[in-house]
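Contributing new records

If you add data, match the layout below exactly. Sequence lines come first and carry their own label; structure lines follow with theirs. Keep one chain per record. Anything else will be rejected by the validation script.
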Amino acid sequence: MPVSRAIDKLNEKIAHAVGWCLLAAVTICTVNAVVRYTLNMSSNAWLEIQWYLFASMFMLASAYTLKRDEHVRIDVVAGRFSKRTQVWIDLFGYLLFLMPISLVILYYGTPFALLSLRSAEMSSNAGGLIVWPAKMLVPVGFLLMVLQGVSEIIKRIAFLAGKIDGHEFAKHAATPQEEIEAIKAANKIN
């Protein structure tokens, strides 16, 4: 499982670094709004950089979200099954949906981004920014997703083979009652 741990660590580091994009986006948005309403000045570049920062957060932290098992899912049915059955459902989902779709997007997104890089594509908006960094987020983000998918598959197979106890990967979301009990326990409320 060293490969899985290395992938997990890579995506954790990237996600924590990208977290700073939120602070930058909020700061830029605030300054832009203040300048626009007080001095009646604005720039398309300010708006585009906010979009780039949001795209960076979304694309580069999605793999970390997968690692933490926090993607949107419907546990109404799967939550009733045993942990082993839930792991089988995850494994099939990763193999039949996540990996093929991610690989297809990576395959088609890479030439799209490289063409933008080679042509030094610029925004069509007046005063806009270069576009290729935003387009490069697509293949990079999906490469990270494919790597994290490999890590999750390794962990699920190891669990099914009895090599790990399931603490190597995140548990499914707690039920509301489990969350209430955890809060009570943390605060020692009866």
